[in-house]
Amino acid sequence: MSPTEVSKLPAWTLRSRLFSSDESQANSGFFRNLIVSYARSNAIETMKCIKKGTLVLEDSQGRQVFPAGTTSTDGAVVLKVVNDNLWLRILMSHDIGLAEAYMEGDFHVSSLKGLLNLWLDNREVMAGFKNIINSICAYYSAVAINTLGRQTLEMSLQNVQVAYDVSNDFYEIFLSKEMMYSCAIWGPEEDGPNGDLTVGPKEGDLEAAQHRKVHHILKLARVRPGDRLLEIGSGWGAVSIEAAKMGVTVHTVTLSSEQKAMTESRAAALGLSDLITVHLCDYRMLPAEFENTFHAFVSCEMVEAVGYKHWNEYFGVMDWALTKERGTAVITATAQPEFRWSEYQPDDFARHYHWPNTFLPSATSFPSELQRIMPGKFVFAGLEDHAVHYPRTLREWGRRLTKNFDKATKQRIQEKHPELRNEKRLQAFINKWHYMFTYAEVGYARAYTALNCWVFARPENVAEPCG
Most buried residue, 72, 172, 230, 364, by most Cβ within 10 Å? Predict the structure, then answer.
């Protein structure tokens, strides 16, 4: 297998081999046991410092409760170690190691959400899991992602192939009918962002919430019948189709052949092919005739993949494509709060296993950089945070994945990805997705991460006549 072929494999197929339990790579011997003992001791010392919440640890050496002296374990998170690779993974990769251990089934836990909340509640303590090995890896991953500027045209294509070209069949089993792979907006009709927990999920709730989000984005973009819309990041055509139904001509850009095929198929089925054109290319490779011809620019949860070093190119395309008089841009993205935001962002679970090399903006860094790079070209016209709506969206995706991953879906995915015919690998793949849904849910629910929506408009471009 060539280096290029290896680079295109999902990340879990590469890292998990370090801890393979196959007989051909037997995990035995004095040296390994010594390292496991050290790694476990280091982890136990860290867990002894837990101050908030209760953790019950069960492994081959017995049962321990943290904090020590806890009299009641009601509501405690119970973690049962199945394979001591858990300790090695945490030693080598810190929080990524914990995720890998979950994917590989190295431990069982009473509540994954509870465990991740416990981790966040005691984040200063959990820093004790860090060591010289994983700290060096984190530092150099940050340098590589941010300083070296990895988002070349080829790397961008490979990143999209890892993230989105699993198969349309797979995404169809957990996304809503219009295939919107971004945060919904929950209204009172669905009992709000917490309605699934207080009232219970109902059939069609996710579809209604996603429909509301799409039309909210189009309203912010100020599109009208006869307008031209440029969308960077097609998804599976949800925004394009709703815009076309309004009489808007849409040019949408994707690097995923799977997304292009489905968007074109759906547009044709609805009789909208004359209004929707899907371009399979990088956003930096658009036709020259696009210059200053679009009234609106929309990009939903795509800019994270651009990379800080390429914001100037992204903003440049936005300025180049929009008309000088009435151009409006709406951009949504997962964001970091200002107090944690940095130009140097190390590897983490989401970057490593779902969206390679992504870079998160903050609410203020993004518009500030736009004004620095494009002074006087745009007015910062609005900012929203939709993070409160994401946890329920993620919970619904997780429910649908569990409910709909049937034998037929399994066979279709295994036909496209023969490596998943190995049942252990397939289970690790499914565990990866469930971990991601819960990991992200906790982050948004705790305001550890935000979901910002920025609106930029040409100067003196009013949203609607008012005088």
Answer: 230
